[in-house]
Amino acid sequence: MPQLNPTPWFFIMLISWLTFSALIQPKILTFLSTNPPTSKTPTTSTTSPWTWPWT
Description:
- The chain is mainly alpha-helical.
- It has one helix and no strands.
- The model has no long low-confidence stretch (mean pLDDT 80).
């Protein structure tokens, strides 16, 4: 059964990961974030407990 022979598939997987790590990943990491975090202070909202009609 050829799918159980790891020799060609391991080499393809290894080359794929090396290509991703060496070429594609640095290009992706250079992009700026489209929604950078701001330095706003978080606002807390006050909530009231729910009044259940059957209690």
